[in-house]
Amino acid sequence: MKNARKMSVLATAAIAVVALAGCAQGGSAGSGGDAGSGDKPYIAMISKGFQHQFWQAVKQGAEEKAEELGVEITFEGPASETEVDAQLQMLQAAIDKSPDAIAYAALDPEACIPLIDAAGAADIPVVQFDAGCDSDVPVSIAKTDSLGAGALAADHMAELIGEEGEVAIVGHSQINSTGVERRDGFVEQMEAEYPDIEIVDIQYGDGDHLKSADIAKAMIAAHPDLKGIYGTNEGSAVGVVNALTELGLNGDDLTVIGFDSGKAQMDAITNGLMAGAITQNPIGIGAETVQAAYDAINGDTPEEVIDTGYFFYDAENMKDEEIAAVLYE
To answer: Is the C or the N end of the chain the one with fewer CB within 10 Å?
Structure first.
């Protein structure tokens, strides 16, 4: 049966395989071995990356839920969130293993369609996490309401700068849904609620802290009246903080709102370099994804959109029980 399924996948995804031939290899990490042993249901998870602590926290939640449910998982992703081709190669390799289910977080919502459709044609249930593929095959997605989270970042930025002045955004992606929605949520909230705040620049550093630092320094130089910068993920925000440090500035000179957690951002908030950040619930995302895949394997219908929540944290509430539970180092 597995061999028949594999042949079906290869036939259906032939065009996608040709398109991927010769793509650059990306780094990855994984858990649980190369493939399912056959003794337990096997779920292949492909994330968007491994360079941020966020994905390690998602992996932790997935592994904990897998142990609870008695399933086997592998968890891998490209070395950085710009390596779309490498991620697609990982997805093809996962399909070739004929897993009982696939869990996927899309770097590019369109490039993944042929392979996700191929998995569906092979009767492999597909669930998603963090960011979706524009295919009708996936039955569920566990994610943060990124538009709402971006709006919350805007509200706190506006409050901290007195609801007037110039701000900028260092984004991490113009392609995947998290980057687009975290940006748009912030922009739309500013336009709707804070007419005296002007967003003077939006640039993208691919979630790389070095690129993001260079972008932030250029923004600060170009806009001497700049009052705040919003970084839309861990690498973006850490890059902004590093830019402040390199320029000899601090939180009194520029208000920085970040996104996600991780030791670097938490330290920056504690030290006053960053005003605060939006945190997701990555452990919850991992756990809910495995639960959804398990349900799909067993013929149950998981919730179509599983909202795992978001929170604003700063130096005052970081140790509150509700906030501390969703922070990670």
So the answer is: N
